[in-house]
């Protein structure tokens, strides 16, 4: 009798595990990701938008800019922020830099603020890079990747470059992993600016 109960328990556990695995597989393979509150721009899983109510809270951070000025993310609360994780040593970062410079100028009048998080870099190299391509928004010097690690706990930012759009409430509205394009960032920013 003990073996029969044990066999029944093992069978029930096995069936339960199989059902759970099936549900998880269906959820993870849905193309749009809408079940989890995430959609992908043009079906590209490296360009994600979080639905309102499903947005992770951006971690607070403070640091020193490349020019020595203190920067706190909390001081941007109530504003839309584009946070770009980059390094002067990174070829895709160099390629996307001019696009981000143009976007920062174009969206300033719509209340969008741009910040950079310069990772694994020296301030001198980073400043030379930003000045060379005309980036005027500030960047935090994050040579130890501390800010990257904090953000990577709530959104996929472990790859350089990665760009995060933070809404007015301090929640992450979208992420672009890899080099940004003007079209994708304009689409994402327009949605956040209009409150979607």
What can be said about this structure in brief?
The chain is of the alpha+beta class. The chain is 38% helix and 22% strand.
Q: How would you characterize the overall build of this protein?
A:
It is a single chain. With 196 residues, the chain is α+β, with helices and mostly antiparallel strands. The chain folds into two domains: 1-30; 35-193, 3-Layer(aba) Sandwich (Glutaredoxin). It is built from five helices and nine strands. It has helices spanning 2-29, 91-107, 123-133, 146-152, 182-193; strands at residues 38-40, 47-50, 62-64, 70-72, 80-86, 112-119, 139-142, 162-166, 172-177. Strands 1-2-9-8-5-6-7 form a seven-stranded mixed β-sheet. Strands 3-4 form a two-stranded antiparallel sheet. A hairpin with a 5-residue loop joins strand 8 (162-166) and strand 9. Helix 2 (91-107) packs across helix 5. The longest helix is centred in the N-terminal third of the chain and has 28 residues, at 2-29. It is globular and about 40 Å long. The N and C termini lie far apart (60 Å). Residues 1-35 have low confidence and may be disordered.
